[in-house]
Design a protein that fits this description.
The structure holds two protein chains of two kinds.
Chain A (H helix, E strand, L loop, with lengths): L4 H7 E10 L24 H18 L4 H12 L11 H21 L4 E4 L8 E9 L22
Antiparallel strand pairs in A: 1-3, 2-3
Helix pairs in contact in A: 2-4
Chain B lengths: L1 H19 L3 H22 L4 E2 L4 H15 L12 E6 L2 E8 L4 E2 L5 E3 L4 E3 L4 E3 L4 E3 L4 H35 L5 H4 L5 H29 L4 H6 L19 H10 L42 H8 L27 H9 L11 H8 L18 H5 L12 H5 L11 H14 L3
Antiparallel strand pairs in B: 1-6, 2-3, 3-4, 5-6, 7-8
The chains are: A alpha+beta, B mainly alpha.
Chain lengths: 158, 427
Amino acid sequence: QVHSLQELRRSASLATKVFVQRDYSEGTTCQFQTKFPAELESRIERQLFEETVKTLNGFYAEAEKIGGSSYLEGCLACATAYFIFLCMETHYEKVLKKISKYIQEQNEKIYAPRGLLLTDPLERGMRVIEISIYEDRCSSGSSSSGSSSSSSGGGGGG
Amino acid sequence: VLLIMFYLFSFSSCPYLSEKITPAIPAIGGILFFFVMGTLLRTSFSDPGVLPRATPDEAADLERQIDIANGSSSGGYRPPPRTKEVIINGQTVKLKYCFTCKIFRPPRASHCSLCDNCVERFDHHCPWVGNCVGKRNYRFFYMFILSLSFLTVFIFAFVITHVILRSQQTGFLNALKDSPARYPFTETNYRSSVVCFFSVWSIVGLSGFHTYLISSNQTTNEDIKGSWSNKRGKENYNPYSYGNIFTNCCAALCGPLSPSLIDRRGFIQPDTPQLAGPSNGITMYGATQSQSNMCDQDQCIQSTKFVLQAAATPLLQSEPSITSEELPLPGKTTISGPCATLTLGQPTPPSSMPNLTSDTGLTDMIPLKEEHEGHQFLTPEEAPSPPGMLPSGSPITHSHTMHVLSLASQDSLHEDSVRGLVKLSSV
């Protein structure tokens, strides 16, 4: 069944959540594991999922990149006693905005039609990418509905 | 100590030195002093990089995975500390599971018992600053001690100069009256010299130590434990170091600053189902003082201790969004009763109110944890959503739990809260 994001909230109920954990093999930089969770096996193509995670990883790497421009920003900020951040955003914040737009876009185009919803890791303290799996309320016969305490709109579209 | 020293310096040596040598001296001293105070405040009040606690779903998922990994646990016993091993840059690093925060700590993170949070790149908890020193405020801390050491050296040098000059003078000017001649030997000057001397050595020492840590990209924690020292084994090296001292320094001091992951403006949701959190991450700081008497004082006091760190997004359903284990709130229903009548007549942004009334109809059930007098000082400052630092002066507000709650129920509100979160994290 194909759902739009709005429809999803109204007609579906949350079945379960899958968590994509952090991948620390590169150190403390923010990267997520690209391992494909078993629960998504039947819901989405492996390649699409991997691409999403890889793109997100790329974004985070860009945000945390240490190079000429970030040094410049840091020194400028220090020189202005960090008042400059009242006027402009840090590079990191700019990338975070890009990320949230990307996630929303992915949700609308790819995940919601498959009954899934990505949550921005920022809302989970950068610990996990939370993927909520929804089941159609009408057709949720076999799959047990998970924690009914979670709000049905949970997970947010960015 | 700092202030005392500074005042001694200003009042004793400054006038003399400024006329003798140059008026630039107190000027420079003053600038340095303000810089020191600025960095101190920034260190104290910025988020060191606190890791928010896991949501209940995450925690459950993790537990499940751990159980699968360990085989079925024997019921009743507390399982042994869970660890995960990761290979970073060729070195094996153990990630520990934090029972309080219910997460596997990232490498270099540590749980601070004083702040009761896991902090990223945990360095140490500084009592002088009243805050943990971690990833986000390490550079401020370093600048603070560096500038402080310059300041103390500066003051010390000039106090000594002052003493010397004066005693030279008395040698020549025997005819001078006794009182000015005795000036260099007054207690004030000696006291300030002695104080200066000890502080200079300790601060300079500390600066030197941290300079070493920065250049080798270690944290105080790691250094104390000797995690990467050669004594442990030939093959032991620091996997986080970039290899180059210069790069290490730059990365630590000028690297990108990640935003704060905690939401300082939210409420901690109690476990009663009917409560709705604030929207847009802007809290409503409780009722006016007169109404705090209506609540059970104990509970109010206790609940105000857990202020400021929770929901970014409203809770539309009846989900108790946070398993705030340290939020006992006994007899919540009783508190909700009288507290419910507390009106929110304080400087809350009007936009959030209609949201709640329309969506939840539960404005009167908004948890008024912050009604305690102690937090009144926050109200005038918090209302217009300042982008800058959050001047939470009391250590209580600092040291208590940060729960990131995000069960977004509506896209628009959710978007707003994300925006709010991003904006907040400019600290």
